[in-house]
């Protein structure tokens, strides 16, 4: 039986790109970005698909620093979404936006029975 993992696509397809977050040479997280054909060009140049930091490194400012550094490298229009019920993720991204003084437009929508908070901003 073949197991399909969407993560594999981020290593195979142009426009789907993984970035790794390192601390003292150790991978502690990652960012998955969609661009090109994997975005809606009317609204965003990049979609922040996933952002992850290992639990023991959370709450130390590393995630905010990593997100801020990454975003500074790739100016453009962004879309970032979180499940509304994932309050830690919602708080995290609001901190990132405030830290960077981004002007953010947010909307709420339903997707497959889940309520998403979607933010759009330009760098």
Helix/strand-derived category reads: alpha+beta
List low-pLDDT spans. Answer: none
Report helical residue fraction. 10-25%
Sheet with the most strands, sense and barrel status: 6 strands, mixed
Which architecture name does CATH use? 3-Layer(aba) Sandwich
**Named CATH topology:** Aminopeptidase
How are the strands of the biggest sheet laid out side by side? 1-2-3-4-6-5
Mean pLDDT: 90
The number of helical segments is: 3
Shape: globular
Q: What portion of the residues fall into strands of 2 or more residues?
A: 35-45%
How many domains? The number is 1
Question: Can you write the helix and strand succession as a string?
Answer: HEEEHEHEE
In CATH, the homologous superfamily goes by the name Gcn5-related N-acetyltransferase (GNAT)
Which class in CATH terms?
Answer: Alpha Beta
Transmembrane segments: 16-33
Domain N-acetyltransferase: 1-123
InterPro entries: Acyl_CoA_acyltransferase, GNAT_dom
Keywords: Membrane, Transferase, Transmembrane, Transmembrane helix
Structure commentary:
This protein is an alpha+beta fold. It has one domain: Aminopeptidase (3-Layer(aba) Sandwich). It is built from 3 helices and 6 strands. A 6-stranded mixed β-sheet has the order 1-2-3-4-6-5, covered by helices on one side. Helix 2 packs across helix 3. The protein is globular, with a radius of gyration of 15 Å. GO terms for molecular function: acyltransferase activity, transferring groups other than amino-acyl groups.
